Amino acid sequence: MTNEADTRGLLNRIRLRHSPFRNVKGLNLPMRRFVELVRCGALNQAPDAALFTGDVNWKQLLLTSERQMLVGVTFQAVKYLPAELAPPKDILVRWLTLTSKIQRRNALMDQRCEEAEIHFRSLGFKCCILKGQGLARLYALPSSRMPGDIDLWVDADHRVLTRLALERNAKAHPTYQHVDYHLFDDIELEVHYRPTWMYSPLTNHRLQQFFRREARWDISGAGVAFHVPSLRMNLVFVLVHAYRHFLSEGLGLRQLMDYFFVLRSSSAQERQTTMAVLESLGMKRFTGAVMWVMEQCFGLAREHMLCPPDVLEGLLLLSEIMQAGNFGQFDRRMLRSKDETQLQTFVRKTRRTFHFVTHYPGEILWSVPWRVWNWVMRTANMY
């Protein structure tokens, strides 16, 4: 059983600079306020007004929402607060303005997802939308989710898709899992021949086998004219994608919110089979960490979890999320110079990854060989 000394020792070892924890018994008050806005905004319900009495740093709450790409979600909770507890007018107007932009962007993204799928199906390929607008359908208010780019999984050989991409743009950038595809001027489109990957050859082989078994191309997204993966695939894919970002560059709370809604939509049988897959991929410890964050930040009930929460790993995960922001964009430990060389980039990313080697050694020890191999493949134009 975890005791206070163990938890304090972990916090000291990972050298938190901006810890969201006042003490080992819980979150500090500013963090509790943010989490309350996130949880209630996700479910479109009123927050606990008692938390927002007294001196509230609304500017910081909005800034944190922006860094975590959760402006539209938290605004749904802010709207429920009584007038006397609402943010100052200038902050409220900015919050509303940003939320309105998110809603308009979502409408455009839905349209572009439909057009991207039509384009590839007209070429004879089966395809579906990964993450993004497909997962937004699971939200209480889909238009509140901050969209990014479009990820389209296409059932085709990577060489074929790369050739099509290069025909549209000679500077298209193929990688191990996708290639940039210039179809729109206002939205970035990544065409995937593999949904995601893992560093370890063994676990990556198991993962790609899972994707091949679970590939579905005829599941319609709710309320939209494009197709999405099965829920069973998303239970694995979305978590592996989060794991990849956590180890390589940084993970935002929005990605875990996506997974929160996937879990809430799943059945007990689906969760049981998913946990077996995740254990085969060496992800039991990370899954436990995610379950703890799900409970603390979103109030996920234990019956919807994949496994019991892991407090120590969860503390580390949430601390990293709050320091790094969405995709690690605000992580001061990962700052890069404008003239950074490929070697410097390699060293910087490797140092970050090895920060977690004692937690996830089976995956991280393979990261250097994988990155070297990936660099050779890209340099030789073999993707």
What topology does this entry show?
Layout (H helix, E strand, L loop, with lengths): L3 H10 L7 E3 L2 E2 L1 H15 L14 H10 L3 H8 L10 H34 L4 E4 L1 H5 L13 E5 L3 H11 L9 E3 L8 E4 L8 H14 L16 H18 L4 H13 L2 H13 L3 H15 L12 H14 L17 H13 L6 H4 L2 H13 L4
Helix pairs in contact: 1-13, 2-4, 4-5, 9-10, 9-11, 12-13
Task: Describe the protein's architecture and organization.
55% of the residues lie in helices and 5% in strands. With 383 residues, the chain is mainly alpha-helical. The protein has four domains: 19-87, no CATH class; 105-206 and 217-225, Beta Polymerase, domain 2, CATH 3.30.460; 230-335, no CATH class; 337-383. A four-stranded mixed β-sheet has the order 3-4-6-5. The chain has a two-stranded antiparallel sheet with strand order 1-2. It is globular. The N and C termini lie far apart (48 Å). The relative contact order is 0.10. Mean pLDDT is 90; it is low at 10-25.
Classify the helix fraction into a percent range.
Answer: 40-55%
How many separate structural domains?
A: 4
Q: Any idea of the CATH topology of the largest domain?
A: Beta Polymerase, domain 2
Q: CATH architecture of the largest domain, please?
A: 2-Layer Sandwich
- Report the total helices: 16
Rg calc: 21 Å
The tally of strands reads 6
Please provide the ordered H/E string of secondary-structure elements: HEEHHHHEHEHEEHHHHHHHHH
Largest sheet: 4 strands, mixed
What's the average pLDDT?
A: 90
CATH top level of the largest domain is Alpha Beta
The percentage of residues in β strands lies in 5-15%
Query: Distance N terminus to C terminus?
Result: 48 Å
Structural class: mainly alpha
From the spread of the alpha carbons, the general shape counts as globular
**Can you list the strand order of the major beta sheet?**
3-4-6-5
Unreliably modeled segments: 10-25
